[in-house]
Design brief:
- This protein has 226 residues and is α+β, with helices and mostly antiparallel strands.
- It is built from 8 helices and 4 strands, in the order ααβαααβαβαβα.
- The chain has a 4-stranded antiparallel sheet with strand order 1-2-4-3, with helices on both faces.
- The radius of gyration is 18 Å and the shape is globular.
C-alpha cells in the first residue's frame, strides 16, 4: 500500500485535456468520501465541495466566459499569486508556462493562442466534471492549509480510480460572479476549482515535461548523523 501511495504522488499531474466520457456520481462520491479523511486541525473540516456536470457545468462555463470578457479579475485580497513574485518562484512559474506551451507548439509570440489556451481553464479543459472548493471567509491560514490537504486527497483518490485532475486556482478570477450561481452564503468564498475526468493521453499537453525543485533545495536534515 505504501508503494501505491508513493507511486500515485509521483504520477499525479495537472491534466489539461480530457475525454468526453462521463464519470458516474458513484465514482465521484467514492472519491470525496475517501478525501474527507484528510488531516484537519481540531477536526474543523473547513471545506465544502460542489460538483457540477451536464447543464449545471455548461451554465457555469457560460457565466464565467461572459465575466472574463470584461477583463476584470475578482481575486480580491486572496491572490492567485503574490504581486511582484520574487525568486526562485518567479522563474519556476515562468519555466512551467514555457514547458506547457512548448508541448502545445505555441510560440511566445503567438499571444492569441496563449490567451485561448488560458481560457480553456474556464471550460475545465473539456472535463465533464467540475469541482468547486468552498471555504468560510472567516477562516484563518491554518484552515486554508487544511482545505489544500483535502484537495490533494481528492486528486490522489481520483488518480487511484484512473481519473485525471487539474487543480484550477484560475477560477478565483470569477469567484464573485459565481457566488450566486453556486448558491453560496455571504460568508462563503469560492477558493478554486478542479477539472475531473478521464485523461486524453493523446493530447499534446500530455507530453509536457514536468519539473520539481531538487530535494536539496527544499529540505534540510538535521541530527541524522548523531
Amino acid at each position: 500500500m505504501a508503494g501505491d501511495i508513493l507511486t500515485a504522488l509521483c504520477r499525479r499531474r495537472s491534466c489539461r485535456a480530457f475525454l468526453p466520457d462521463p464519470v458516474s456520481r458513484q465514482v465521484i462520491e467514492a472519491i470525496l468520501d475517501a478525501a474527507r479523511w484528510a488531516p484537519s486541525g481540531g477536526n474543523l473540516q473547513p471545506w465544502r465541495v460542489i460538483a457540477v456536470t451536464g447543464s449545471e457545468r455548461d451554465e457555469v462555463v457560460r457565466i464565467a466566459g461572459e465575466a472574463l470578457f470584461s477583463g476584470a479579475s475578482e481575486e480580491g485580497e486572496h491572490f492567485i499569486y503574490p504581486p511582484d513574485l520574487w525568486e526562485p518562484y518567479r522563474t519556476r512559474r515562468f519555466a512551467n508556462a514555457e514547458a506547457l506551451y512548448a508541448a502545445l507548439g505555441v510560440s511566445r509570440e503567438d499571444k492569441a493562442a496563449r490567451y485561448r489556451w488560458v481560457a480553456e481553464n474556464f471550460r475545465f479543459f473539456g472535463a465533464p466534471i467540475g469541482l468547486f472548493f468552498i471555504i468560510d471567509r472567516r477562516m484563518g491560514h491554518g484552515q486554508w492549509a487544511q482545505l489544500g490537504m483535502f484537495m490533494q486527497s481528492v486528486a490522489l483518490a481520483a488518480e487511484a480510480e484512473g481519473l485525471g485532475t487539474c487543480l484550477q486556482e484560475a477560477w478565483a478570477r470569477v469567484r464573485e460572479t459565481l457566488h450566486g450561481q453556486l448558491g453560496l452564503e455571504e460568508h462563503e468564498l469560492l477558493y478554486c476549482g478542479m477539472a475531473l475526468g478521464w485523461p486524453d493521453p493523446g493530447h499534446a499537453s500530455a507530453s509536457m515535461v514536468r519539473e520539481r525543485a531538487a530535494l536539496e533545495e527544499i529540505a534540510e536534515f538535521r541530527g541524522f548523523g548523531d
